[in-house]
């Protein structure tokens, strides 16, 4: 079994815990083999023992020294190689630097899957719509390269009712949380949220929503054995971040 997860570490604004504690919580509570960390940093002393990762040192820029990290424990990661903007369109939009990384997950010398770790960066907006253009272009180019084993995961700063149709209809990816049987209906659900992955503030009445997702191609969706996430599955998540993880177990 391979556990793939995504989690926002809340390093952009007012972190709740020191980085070493966040990595320890991630290891013990999420227990992933591969994880997309958004609004994330690597500890000053480097990656914990056993971990490898792909990220941009220094993050997005001087005022935003955080970004997206694709990390794996006891599994090899390689930067994915494929043609981007193969038609050389002048109006082609790339993902914002440091917010997206695409990596091959290598097991026993073979690429098991390719993961796109994405963050819906919104420097001037209240949602991730503009960032979604670059994320979508990355996925289209990867899928057009012939790769049939693709995972897209991260914090998109968009609700399910907006993001899921684009991922499923435009990219042909499966919304894995949407395939959970008998998922309890949320009270006060916004934007089609099925689980609470984000709490917007510390007050008891702070808005809750689903912003974090894992999608996969059909070939990988057929290998899913379990899907979970949100505050119900990780009840102490909001003590360490304003986001709760999403996890998917695949039969390898």
Q: Whole-number average pLDDT? A: 96
Helix amount, in percent?
10-25%
**From the 3D coordinates, which CATH architecture would you assign?**
4-Layer Sandwich
**Which shape, going by the Cα principal axes?**
globular
Kindly give the count of domains: 1
Describe the 3D structure.
By secondary structure, the protein is α+β, with helices and mostly antiparallel strands. It has one domain (2-250): Endonuclease/exonuclease/phosphatase (Deoxyribonuclease I, Chain A, 4-Layer Sandwich), CATH 3.60.10. Helix content is 17%, strand content 30%. The strands form three sheets. The protein has a six-stranded mixed beta sheet, with no helix packed on it. The chain is globular and about 50 Å long. The termini are close together.
């Amino acid at each position: 079994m391979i556990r793939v997860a995504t989690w926002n570490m809340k390093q952009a604004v007012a972190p709740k815990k020191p980085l070493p504690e966040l990595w320890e919580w991630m290891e013990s509570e999420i227990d992933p083999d591969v994880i997309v960390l958004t609004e994330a940093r690597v500890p000053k002393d480097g990656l914990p023992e056993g971990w490898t990762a792909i990220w941009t040192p220094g993050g997005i820029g001087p005022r935003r020294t955080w970004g997206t990290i694709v990390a794996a424990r006891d599994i090899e990661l390689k930067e994915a190689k494929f043609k981007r903007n193969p038609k050389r369109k002048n109006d082609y939009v790339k993902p914002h630097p440091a917010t997206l990384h695409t990596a091959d997950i290598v097991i026993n010398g073979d690429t098991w899957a390719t993961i796109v770790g994405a963050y819906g960066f919104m420097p001037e907006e209240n949602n991730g719509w503009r960032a979604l253009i670059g994320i979508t272009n990355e996925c289209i180019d990867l899928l057009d390269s012939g790769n049939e084993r693709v995972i897209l995961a991260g914090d998109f700063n968009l609700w399910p009712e907006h993001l899921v149709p684009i991922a499923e209809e435009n990219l042909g990816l499966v919304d894995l949380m949407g395939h959970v049987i008998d998922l309890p209906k949320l009270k006060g659900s916004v934007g089609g949220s099925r689980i609470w992955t984000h709490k917007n503030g510390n007050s008891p009445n702070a808005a809750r929503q689903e912003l974090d997702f894992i999608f996969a191609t059909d070939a990988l969706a057929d290998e899913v054995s379990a899907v979970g996430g949100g505050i119900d599955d990780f009840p102490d998540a909001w003590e360490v971040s304003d986001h709760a993880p999403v996890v998917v177990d695949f039969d390898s």
